[in-house]
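Continuing the batch. This is chain 6 of the set; chains 1 through 5 are on the previous pages. Same settings as before, nothing changed between runs. Recording input and output for traceability.
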Amino acid sequence: MDATHPYAEGASKEAQQAAKEADIAYLRYERPGADIPAGDGVYYAPDFAAAATISARLGKKIFLTIGTRHLHEFITALPPEKEVVARILPDEGGIEHCRKLGLSPAQIVALQGPVTKELNAALFAQYGAQVVVSKDSGRTGGTPEKVAAAREKKIPIVLVRRPAGPGGLGSPAEVIAAVRKLLS
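Output for chain 6:
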């Protein structure tokens, strides 16, 4: 049973390969996306490099909530005059990664999400965000709260679409039904 983050492509590939090598069934639970339509300040990008290009057109100060895995790819795709603030998980490795990429402590917000619309709005205001970039991590990942906060502050938000993958079961009920079918 693969229940990894929707953007954890490597982990899912490893799980698929392990299931194949062990000659066992592979099931994937994929939490639903946020289903937020484009428009009204919401833009979609197919990947992180495209998100950098789109966000660079929309503002100078970019507030990222994409984690650290694609941070280098994003930052290197930006024109040098753009500023970045990265909200990341509060762990030493992530902070060290940001520092190695040239981010100062003032550009790092180490915070465990998801957080409320109100806290997102306060962070966007505090850091002077002119555009926000996030993954579509669905309701579970706090995407609706980020979008609502950005809209409230009249800040455009760029959502990176989920990578194409094997798809998966979209609810716990579907997972239970699939496991029961395998066991019968």
